[in-house]
Design a protein that fits this description.
Blueprint lengths: L1 E9 L4 H21 L6 E6 L3 E9 L6 E9 L4 H11 L8 E5 L2 E10 L4 H15 L19 E8 L2 E2 L3 E2 L2 E2 L3 E3 L8 E3 L3 H10 L6 H17 L3 E3 L3 H8 L6 E6 L9 H12 L2 E5 L4 E9 L8 H25 L15 E3 L3 E2 H15 L7 H10 L7 H5 L6 H9 L4 H9 L14 H20 L13 H14 L7 H10 L11 H18 L5 H8 L7 H16 L1 H24 L13 H22 L3 H9 L2 H10 L7 H18 L11
Helix pairs in contact: 1-3, 5-6, 7-8, 9-10, 9-14, 9-16, 10-13, 10-14, 12-13, 13-14, 14-15, 14-16, 14-17, 15-17, 16-17, 17-18, 18-19, 19-20, 19-22, 20-23, 20-24, 21-22, 21-23, 21-24
Length: 687
C-alpha cells in the first residue's frame, strides 16, 4: 500500500471558497479512485489561503487484474459475425474462444484477462480530470493559458509512493516542491510524504489543517483578552473567514480611539468585522470595550507593535466615516425620511417601499388587538420601521437596518416600544434568531411579513423547487414562530384577507385565490418547522384537512391532544377500527355506486344498536369539548367508542343477507367515520 500527496499552490484563494473546494477535491478524487479499483483506506483534503492539499493513504500500487466475459455468436454463425466478434473481443483466432452450451444452443464466449495498470498512470488521469472539474463560484484566466481556475497557479506537488506523478494542469507540471510562508519562509521545500510535508511547512510557518488554525486563533485571542479581564465576542462566521486568510495566525489586541466610543457599538462592530476582519472585545458583563482583536499572518520582530499601530490607523479612518454618518443622520428626524421611501422600489408590480409602509400601517392597526398592543403605537412603529433605509449609515452598513432606526427613534424621543419594534421587526430571520416578544414589535414583524407574503403570492411570484428569491419560506416560518412562541390567537385567514384588500386592484385580479394558497403554504412550512420537534407531519395534515383551522395555537393544541390519543391503546385500536370501517365503506360504495351517509335505520343487531347509542353520546361530548377548546376531553370522549366498536366488528356481519340491514349497517360505518372526523381527518394518519 502507498500514499498519495497532492498540493495545488496558487495565489490567494478567497476564504469563502476554500472549504467547498477542499470538499469537492476530496469527493472528485475519492469517487474516481474507487471507480478505478484504487480505493484508499483514508482520504483527507485541506484548504488554506494559497494551497489545496489532499492526502490519501492505503492506496494499491496497481489496479487489480480483472477478467471479463463477452458472449459471442452461435458456433454456426456466419463468417462475418465471427470476424466481428473476434475484432470486438481482441482475439486473433476463434480457437481462443470458449464454446458453451446454452438453452438456445452453443455459443462462443471470449474470456478477456486485463492486467491492472500502475496506480501512478491512473492517478495522473484522475487528478488532471478532477482539477479541471473542480467547481468554483468564480474563476479566471491568466496569461495566455486557456484554463480557468480561481486564481493563477504557481506549483503542483504530486507524489505517489515517494515518486513524482508527472501530471500537468493549466501549464504547470507537477513536482515534489512547494513553498513556505510568503514572507517568513519563501524558500522552496521538497516533500515526499504527508507527514514530511506538514512538518516542513510548520517549520516554514504554514499550518496546513484549517481546523488547527481556527483553534489556535480561538484560544490565543481568548487568552489575550483574558489578561485584560475581557472576553472576545463569539462570531463563528468571522472566525471561519479569518482562518482562511492566514497560514500562521498571530492574534494581537488593538485599541479603538476614544473619539469613536459614543458611536453605537453595533456600528463599530460592523465596521470592524465587515471591512477589517477584527473581532469585537467586551467586558465580562457583555459591555462593548475599546479593544479589538486582529489576526496577523506573521510573527513581527517588534512583538506586533507596528502591525497594531497600522491597523489602528486604518480603523481610525474607517470609523471617522461611521462617526460622520452617525452625527449627520441625527441632524434630521427619522420621520422626515419616510417620504424618501417613495424613491425606493419594493417590487415593480407592488410599488415602492413607501407603499409597503402604508399597507403595514393599516395591517398593524388590524393586528394590534389580537397581539394586545396599543394600536396607535403599532401604527407609529410601522410608519417608521423602514425609514432608516434612507439614512447614510444604513447605506454604508446595510446590515444595520432596523438597529439604526431604533437609535434614531430614541434620539427623537419616540416611545421605547416604537424604537424596539423598528429594530426587531425583521426578526426572526432564521431558526436561531430570537423571536420578538414585545406586543408592538410582534405586530410590526407580522405586518411586514404578511404584507410581503400576500404581495408576492398575489403577483404569482411563489417559491418553486429550491428557488425562493424573495425569501418567502423564511417569512412564513417567521409568522409561524411569532404566533406560536407568543401564543397569539390570530386566525391567519383574517389578516391575510385584510392584507389582500390593501393592495390596489386589479392586483391581484383574482384576489380570492391568495388566502387559500397561502394557508396551504403555511401548512407546508409548519410541517417543516415541527419536523425537528418530533411532531408528525401526518398529524398536522389530519387537522388541516378539516378546514377552517387557521388558528395555529389551537391547531397545535389539537395536534398534541391527537398525538397523545394515538399513543394510547384506545386511540391506536380506534384508528385500526376507523380504517376497517372506511375500507369496507369505500369498497361497498364503489360496488353499489352510491354513498352511505343517510340516517341509520333498523340494523337487526343489538351490538349495532349499542354502538349507535355510544356514537350519539360521544358526538355530543366531542362537540361540547371542541366548543370549549378542551381537546383532551374530546379525545377522551372518542375513546369511549373503542369497546362498542370492537364488539360490533366481532359480532356483526356488515354485509348482511337482508338488504335493509346491510344498508343500515353501512350507514353506521359512515357514522363512525364522521364521528371520529370531528376531531381530525383520520384518513390522513399514517402507520
Amino acid at each position: 500500500m502507498a500514499e498519495l500527496l497532492l498540493e495545488i499552490f496558487s495565489e490567494e484563494i478567497p476564504a469563502r471558497m476554500q472549504a467547498g473546494a477542499a470538499d469537492a477535491l476530496a469527493r472528485l478524487v475519492g469517487e474516481a479512485l474507487k471507480a478505478q479499483g484504487l480505493a484508499p483506506t483514508s482520504l483527507k483534503a485541506y484548504a488554506g489561503p494559497r494551497r489545496l492539499t489532499l492526502s490519501a493513504e492505503g492506496l494499491p500500487t496497481a489496479q487489480p487484474d480483472i477478467s471479463e466475459e463477452r458472449k459471442g455468436p452461435k458456433v454456426d454463425a456466419t463468417p462475418q459475425a465471427l470476424q466481428g466478434f473476434l475484432k470486438a473481443s481482441g482475439l486473433t483466432d476463434i480457437t481462443q474462444a470458449e464454446v458453451r452450451d446454452l438453452e438456445k444452443g452453443k455459443f462462443y464466449f471470449a474470456v478477456i484477462q486485463k492486467k491492472g495498470r500502475p496506480a501512478a498512470d491512473v492517478l495522473k488521469e484522475i487528478i488532471e480530470t478532477a482539477l479541471a472539474a473542480l467547481p468554483w463560484p468564480k474563476s479566471m484566466r491568466w496569461g495566455t493559458n486557456p484554463t480557468r481556475w480561481v486564481r493563477p497557479l504557481h506549483k503542483i506537488l504530486c507524489v505517489f509512493d515517494g515518486k513524482v506523478v508527472r501530471l500537468s494542469f493549466a501549464g504547470v507540471t507537477a513536482s515534489n516542491v512547494t513553498m513556505g510562508h510568503r514572507f517568513m519562509a519563501p524558500a522552496e521545500i521538497t516533500a515526499t510524504t504527508y507527514a514530511d510535508y506538514t512538518t516542513q511547512l510548520r517549520k516554514a510557518y504554514v499550518i496546513v489543517d484549517p481546523a488547527e488554525r481556527m483553534e489556535i486563533i480561538r484560544k490565543a485571542v481568548a487568552e489575550l483578552a483574558a489578561k485584560e479581564n475581557l472576553t472576545v465576542r463569539d462570531d463563528v462566521g468571522l472566525l471561519n473567514e479569518v482562518t482562511g486568510l492566514v497560514e500562521w495566525p498571530v492574534p494581537l489586541l488593538g485599541t479603538i480611539d476614544a473619539a469613536f466610543m459614543d458611536v453605537p457599538p453595533e456600528v463599530l462592530t460592523s465596521a470592524m468585522r465587515k471591512h477589517q476582519k477584527y473581532f469585537a472585545v467586551e467586558t465580562k458583563d457583555g459591555v462593548f470595550s475599546n479593544r479589538f482583536a486582529v489576526i496577523a499572518n506573521m510573527v513581527a520582530t517588534d512583538g506586533g507593535k507596528a502591525i497594531v499601530a497600522g491597523n489602528e490607523r486604518v480603523l481610525r479612518a474607517r470609523l471617522s466615516d461611521a462617526k460622520f454618518f452617525w452625527d449627520e443622520d441625527r441632524e434630521v428626524k427619522l420621520e422626515s425620511r419616510v417620504e424618501k421611501l417613495s424613491e425606493r422600489v419594493f417590487q415593480d408590480k407592488l410599488g415602492t417601499v413607501r407603499d409597503k409602509v402604508d399597507r403595514m400601517i393599516s395591517l398593524a392597526r388590524e393586528l394590534a388587538p389580537a397581539c394586545k398592543a396599543n394600536a396607535e403605537l403599532a401604527a407609529r412603529a410601522a410608519k417608521l420601521a423602514k425609514a432608516d433605509l434612507s439614512a447614510e449609515m444604513v447605506g454604508e452598513f446595510p446590515d444595520l437596518q432596523g438597529l439604526m432606526g431604533r437609535y434614531y427613534a430614541l434620539h427623537d424621543k419616540e416611545d421605547a416600544s416604537v424604537a424596539d419594534a423598528i429594530a426587531e421587526h425583521y426578526s426572526p430571520l432564521g431558526p436561531n434568531d430570537a423571536c420578538p416578544t414585545k406586543p408592538v414589535s410582534i405586530v410590526v414583524a407580522l405586518a411586514d411579513k404578511i404584507d410581503t407574503l400576500v404581495g408576492f403570492f398575489a403577483i404569482d411570484e411563489k417559491p418553486t423547487g429550491s428557488k425562493d428569491p424573495y425569501a418567502l419560506r423564511r417569512a412564513a416560518l417567521g409568522v409561524i414562530r411569532l404566533i406560536l412562541e407568543n401564543k397569539l390567537r390570530v386566525p391567519l385567514s383574517k389578516p391575510l384577507n385584510f392584507a389582500v384588500e390593501q393592495f390596489p386592484h386589479p392586483i391581484p385580479a383574482d384576489a380570492k385565490r391568495v388566502t387559500p394558497e397561502l394557508l396551504n403554504f403555511f401548512a407546508d412550512r409548519l410541517k417543516v418547522f415541527l419536523k425537528d420537534k418530533g411532531v408528525r407531519h401526518d398529524l398536522i395534515s389530519a387537522i388541516f384537512s378539516l378546514g377552517n383551522e387557521d388558528d395555529l395555537v389551537q391547531l397545535m393544541a389539537r395536534v398534541e391532544a391527537l398525538k397523545s390519543f394515538l399513543e394510547s391503546d384506545n386511540g391506536a385500536n380506534l384508528l385500526v377500527a376507523y380504517r376497517r370501517a372506511a375500507n369496507i365503506l369505500a369498497i361497498e360504495e364503489k360496488r353499489d355506486n352510491k354513498k352511505y351517509n343517510s340516517k341509520v335505520g333498523d340494523m337487526g343487531a343489538n351490538e349495532a344498536d349499542e354502538l349507535l347509542k355510544a356514537i350519539q353520546s360521544a358526538e355530543d361530548a366531542v362537540k361540547n369539548a371542541l366548543a370549549s377548546e378542551n381537546f383532551s376531553a374530546a379525545m377522551t370522549a372518542m375513546a369511549t367508542l373503542r369497546q362498542p366498536v370492537d364488539t360490533f366488528f366481532d359480532k356483526v356481519k356488515v354485509n348482511a343477507d337482508y338488504a335493509a340491514h346491510r344498508t343500515a349497517r353501512l350507514n353506521l360505518l359512515s357514522r363512525i367515520c364522521a364521528a371520529m372526523n370531528q376531531i381530525a381527518d383520520f384518513s390522513k394518519i399514517e402507520g
